[in-house]
Amino acid sequence: MAKESLSIGLTNAGPDDLEVLSGSISLLDAVTPLLWRSALAHVGWLCFVDEPMAFTGGTTAQIQNAVFVAADFRRSHMRLAYHLFHEAMHQKFIELAQTHSLLSPGYDYPSLVENPWNGHVARYVRWDLDRSLTVAHVYLALAVFYGKLGVLLRDGGLARVWAVEGEPQEAFRMAIARSRFILDQLSGHRDMLGVAGCAFLHWMQGLAVRLAPDVSARPFRRFVEHGARQEDPVLTALLRAEVAS
Predict the structure, then answer these.
(1) Is there a contact between 58 and 6 (Cβ–Cβ < 8 Å)?
(2) Residue among 113, 168, 167, 171 nearest 139 (CA)
(3) CA-CA distance, 139 to 178, in Å (whole number)?
(4) Torsion sign (Cα): 47, 63, 79, 231
């Protein structure tokens, strides 16, 4: 993550886009106000990107306080809220990495952590520890968001003024499973983490267990064992059933 840059085309935002953005921010404020505002504090610029469908969002340490989100997400409060929150958490991590000893001195970014859900992008089959830490952190934040969203919808504490796409509980469990799969691998590379990195990893592992003690990383291990990626329809169906159980 720290060594990448973005080469993208931006597009202008109109009044309708700002209205959707306002609704997305209101949704995040309603569901996870403290966590969302903590991430938002690290964002100064929101840039809509006019790129092919493969691009969803991004951040880069080379452009501080900026998050980039695909322009297509302006059509949906829910999708824009998800990606805005996702990228804001990445931006928060960039600043965390710049001010804390997350990685050991001399760390040279070897790709060590298996990634079975982005295998269609060759450079993301394995991640370095920097990217792995931020991804695990983002998935834990998304788990909190989806878990709270599901509770609010179930208990009637959230007015249905937003079109909620998908099943929050399934998204919650999937986010936890992905995070724990990454965290389990990071545990085997503590010697490459700095003092703050080890403390950060320990905190995330404990949080993942507290959020969902019954959700494991086992489904994703099956992908690695089969040498498959999440695009495999048979294994994907098995994974979804196991995570949702």
Answers:
(1) yes
(2) 171
(3) 7
(4) positive
Query: Quick one: which of 78, 198, 204 has its CA closest to 141?
Result: 204
**231 membership: H or E segment, kind and range:** none
The model's pTM: 0.83
Q: What b-and-e string marks burial along 127-161, b requiring 16 or more CB atoms within 10 Å of the CB?
A: bbbbbbbbbbbbbbbbbbbbbbbbebbeeeebeee
Asked if residues 7 and 60 have their Cβ atoms less than 8 Å apart, the reply is no
- pLDDT tens per residue, range 98-143: 999 999 998 998 889 988 776 555 556 788 999 999 999 999 999 9
pLDDT for res 231:
53
Q: Are 42 and 87 in contact (CB under 8 A)?
A: no
pLDDT of res. 70:
83
